[in-house]
Amino acid sequence: MVKETNHVGPSPEEIDQVSTPPVPGVDGPGRTVLVCVAWPYANGHLHLGHIAGSLLPPDIFARFQRMQGNRVLMVSGSDCHGTPIMLTAEKEGKAPSEVVDHYNAEHIKAIRDFGIAFDIFTKTTTENHERNVQDIFTTLLDQGYLEKRTTEAPYDPGAGRFLPDRYVEGTCPHCGYTDARGDQCDDCGKTLDAHELIDPHPKGAPDGRIEFRPTEHFFFLLSRFQKRLEEYVADKQPHWRPNTKNFTNNWLKEGLQDRPITRDLTWGVPIPLDGFEDKRLYVWFEAVCGYYTSAIEWAERVGKPDAWRTWWESPETESVYFLGKDNIPFHTIIWPSILMGFSDGREARGEKRLVLPYDVPANEFLNLDGKQFSKSRGIGIWVPDVLGRFDPDVVRYYLSVNMPENRDANWTWEDFVAKVNDELVDSFGNLVHRALTFTEKNFGAVPEPGTLGPDEERLVARIRDVHAEVTDDLAHSRFKKALRTIMGLASEGNRYFAASEPWRLVKEDKERAATVLHTSMFLVRSLCLMLAPYIPFATHRLWKYLGEEGAVHATAWVAALEPPTVGMKLSVPEVLFRKLDLKEILQPEAPESSAPQKKKEKPKMPTAETTNNEVTIDEFAKLDLRIATVKSVEDHPDADRLYVIKLDVGDLGERQVCAGLKKFYAPDEMVGKKVAFIANLKPAVLRGVESQGMILAGDSGDAVAFLTPEKELPAGAKIR
Ligand SMILES: [Zn+2]
To answer: Most exposed residue of 109, 176, 215, 698, measured as fewest CB within 10 angstroms of its CB?
Structure first.
């Protein structure tokens, strides 16, 4: 009998069991693996892009490595400094420390609820981080890798202080957008320097003034590491992903530039020198040091203060860094250089060198309907919200099978529901449930098999082949491919089970039925072990239904090749996954985010007031409506959905508009057409391209059509 449960996700007890890794031993057999995970900013909720890009892959990797008997330490934490956090704090009327503590706690909970098992997830505001980062700074200074230089920085004479780039606003020199920031233009997306802004002024004070004044800063002499980095990269690159290689080689080819590592700011790690009280270390410099400082903190926490050395001081350690592609150069160029310089100093004082990154499997981006998650607004974006609605395993499954490993991937609700229902529920879940309940009902335990037939021989051989292939893929961070292979085996198992008809055999040939069911339980057990890194909660429960001792995550990876023990008592399983309903997911009542839940107002019935939106003839006459001829249609350089269309509007000359018509018309179908056009719409800049007016079209929801004059009219003719 299927027992239905109403809770969506795992119980607090299961979360605790699944998300707490065992304390790794510091010696004994096995390889030493350091899993370093990019530090998310502590100024907002985690979204699914974070999970897919940098949090889920290392968890799969670390679980696999632990099951292989290796010594795994997985570290990360919240990146707490930098101006985005100061801006969030100002907006929320709080101290920066309050903001980061709040989000750090939220992130820790979300990560655990997702089944991501860190050995430590700390933050960059700890005393430990500050002390060890200052040691790195002082050591680099002593080694001659830092240099004091004077630069010009934006200064607010009204407030009497230097301003970070993000606190300077002005007009973008590229697109003319008037609210561009000193680091970037949000309209055209170009990276800027405060010097380039036209009419710069302090943020929020358009009448204020900015001066550029000299200020003294420390520069990290990155250029001095060029040769050593080239050698290091040549040594490691053979096993790097193409995107990691490309980003890194481009930086090296352009030649490394010295970079300032301090700035005029009071939120951040202080500089351990007199005369620098109003300056702090740049966040890009100190946050990457967190991989090292957090290992030291972990060792303190487990009461073995020297334990971190096992991972950091052995040249044998495989240190693997998981991150999004935007972070690659920080992990293949900057962090290795800091480590090289710091290690020179450590060696000089009789300490061991620290290990350099071994692999840097960077992911591409996960988009939501073509847009970056971080910039999207809609249902199911934020992790706390997602976890309130879905079992974490179904989300982990979809993110893994759709992982942005070598190219950007797209999240769509249709595909999410299809993959979960067809693969996880109908293929794997169905096999597990049928095989387990049928065996339990007829034998109560794993039955003794008779002689294997050719189908059983073939299936057992497939288990071995798949296990070997998956082991190699997981060791090389090919998570999507490995999962596809495992799920292929589940489908084969389903076909085997159906074709063998155990329900018929159990009446006609009990020994043959026992052979089929034993082989089926062998397959289910192997699948459970191989899927444990991907769907930790379901496999944790399944392992118990199989009557196995201990936790699946503490079981040896190679045990997937062993058949189940004859006589092992089985339990009736609860359903592992339930089907998802697309309509239910997309219903408009669904909460948009976990942020303070505002009760949705019921839609108002139309009243006289809301329907009374008549316009006068004078108001209508204000619109300059014209017939225009489409001259050319090109893709927008920076927006996938938009065309840039050039129009001939007769006496008004040529106009250019941006229009989202790609789904409805190919460029060829449009060129030469006469269309209805609003000529006096206020121009707008769409992603860097000015749009001067609007083409009118009929829109039924799924069909869109131009309005074309019924008789030949010249371009520029008025519509009234
Ligand atoms: Zn711009």
So the answer is: 698
